[in-house]
Amino acid sequence: MTVPILKQRDYLIASIQAALTDADLKHLRDALVAQVGDYRSRGVIVDVTALDVMDSFAVRTLRDLAHMTRLRGAETVIVGIQPEVAFAMTQLGLRLEGVAAALDLEEGLAYLDSRVKRGGMTRQRLEG
Amino acid sequence: MSQRVTVNNTGPMTDGVRLDRAQITVPITSDLDIVAARQRGRLLAVELGYTATQATLIATAISELARNIVLYATRGEILLTGANDGARVGIVVTARDQGPGIKDVPYAIAGGHSTSGGLGLGLAGVRRLMDVFEITSLLGQGTTVTVTSWKR
Amino acid sequence: MPGSETTVVMTPVVRDESTSGLLRELVAHLRQNRTQLREEWARRITEAKLLTAMSPEEVFAEATAVYDNYLEALETGSIEALETYARNLSERIIPRGVETNEVVGIVLLLRDVLARSLFAKYRRDFEQLDHILDAYEPAANRIAITVSVGFVQERERVIRQQQEAIRELSTPVLPVRERLLILPIIGIIDPQRARQLTEQLLRGIRVNRAKVVVMDITGVPAMDATVANHLVQTVEAARLLGATVIVTGLSPEIAQTLVNIGVDLGKMNTVGDMQGGIEEAERLLGYRVAPVVVETAAAAP
Ligand SMILES: Nc1ncnc2c1ncn2[C@@H]1O[C@H](COP(=O)(O)OP(=O)(O)OP(=O)(O)O)[C@@H](O)[C@H]1O
Ligand SMILES: [Mg+2]
């Protein structure tokens, strides 16, 4: 099960379609971290609407993904966490520390736009 | 020496918890089986009329237990059974393996300690997700974790 | 599904040979006299002024069903069918105000009616009566307990459900304006209420696409560490859905509890009172309300 990664403007969007195994998740993480560099993306959206369970492994992998992409200059936002899943995650004691979350794709895009506009000017100048 | 720890979040168990006759066994040998086990557990919860929230808690607990099997014991199995204590319907999940066992059980379930670079949250978290938590581990023999969730 | 299979385990019912022979004889007798014994029982129920909330016809109909299930339980030794029926019966009669003592009363009455009939039948053969009663008593006790306990548990379930419903009403999630929810919490929060409150809030965030939640706990008198932890979890769960929670009305005691359990209050969004919380929420949402003047003044060199 591979997750399609879409390129839209400065962003990479990964929409998870079905339950993922640990190996799938790691693969997604590595692919996104690599592509952020390839495309000089400024933001990454991971849509987890289809995930009905986010356990310690999934959370750790997504957190690592976010931290790694940040080191490569892209902000990651996780979108579409289901209310039940959010509830179970916090009951389990999991925190997505330092990782942004938004309700859905639209909100995720709005979040990235606001971040890139606010914090991204210097960097754009440097690159341009 | 076998170590056994029981944590009951719902007060003393009413005697006479009856297990349903049908029992589902999911062999756990790879990370694919982790997904299969938790999906099967969710299905059972939904069949028994659990809310989506509780079904998610159960599926998440199964995922943690199954992953521990793959990670630490390579292979084992997850058993899923409906249960009933007269007043409440429940689901009993048993995760068992013949792996290396756990050296210090209270330490392992206290949370925050991992031998694999994990968060060490699995067992401690499962305790919070479920109503009754019981673990028996024997060094060199294996580990059995039995957890129950009562339908609310 | 990959790698899954189903095992079916049967638990055999073990029963001693002579006992089951006696019970068979007993059941045959009770079946033969069904009409008369059932009527006798219904009459005694009315006499004892039990089940007064039900009409005589209803009492008779239920008496018949209980009687038949009773015999079946005696015969097969399996109380499952009776249990299901008892739960069903309880579900029907609890809303009508039937009390626990009435249910226990009618079961004991049936036991009495049947025992008397056995006495009458085996009057001349004491030894046989002894054996019959030895077989009957434990079975009858088990049945009586099953029905009574079933009733009490169903009642508890109904009460729990009602409590849950009341709780849900007592913590409204209010959409006050676009993307803003207010959650005024009043009264003691126990872990169960904390869970319910979180579930309700998360659903509310999803449905209203809320970005900011003002959670006012002015009305919460106290909070222990467990509940404080739940509160922190609620805030985090809301964040996972993209909503910021502003906590208002934190009493000094509760603030102390939060600090004691290691919550960094600097990371938690707290504002003194609900009014302030709403203003902060509107600022976060990008609405420009009253404090524009203040801002300009502050920004001026
Ligand atoms: N089935 C098992 N067999 C042997 N050891 C186990 C087993 N399950 C857990 N352990 C031991 O207990 C420790 C705690 O387990 P727990 O699931 O709580 O955390 P983790 O697996 O290390 O990390 P996380 O689950 O947060 O990713 C593990 O590090 C491991 O040493
Ligand atoms: Mg683990």
What does this structure look like?
The complex is a heterotrimer of chains A (about 130), B (about 150) and C (about 300). Chain A has about 130 residues and is an alpha/beta fold. Chain A has one domain: 2-Layer Sandwich (Transcription Regulator spoIIAA), CATH 3.30.750. Chain A has helices at about 20-40, 55-70, 85-90, 105-120, 120-125, and strands spanning about 5-10, 10-15, 45, 75-80, 100. Chain A has a 5-stranded mixed sheet, with helices on both faces. In chain A, helix 3 links the parallel strand 4 (about 75-80) and strand 5. Chain A is globular, with a radius of gyration of 14 Å. With about 150 residues, chain B is an alpha+beta fold. Chain B has a single domain (about 1-150), classed as 2-Layer Sandwich (Heat Shock Protein 90). Helix content of chain B is about 35%, strand content about 35%. In chain B, helix 1 (about 30-45) packs antiparallel against helix 2. Chain B is globular and about 40 Å long. Chain B starts with a strand and ends with a strand. The model of chain B has no long low-confidence stretch (mean pLDDT about 90). Chain C has about 300 residues and is of the alpha/beta class. Chain C has helices at about 15-30, 35-45, 55-75, 80-95, 100-120, 125-170, 190-210, 225-240, 250-260, 275-285, 290-300; strands at about 5-10, 175, 180-185, 210-220, 245-250, 270. A 5-stranded mixed sheet of chain C has the order 2-3-4-5-6, with helices on both faces. The termini of chain C are far apart. The interface between A and B is medium-sized, with 24 and 27 residues. Strand 2 (about 20-30) of chain B pairs antiparallel with strand 1 (about 5-10) of chain C. The complex binds adenosine-5'-triphosphate and magnesium ion (MG).
Quick description:
The complex is a heterotrimer of chains A (128), B (152) and C (301). Chain B has helices spanning 31-47, 52-73, 105-110, 122-129, and strands at residues 2-8, 18-28, 76-84, 89-97, 132-138, 142-150. Chain B has 152 residues and is α+β, with helices and mostly antiparallel strands.
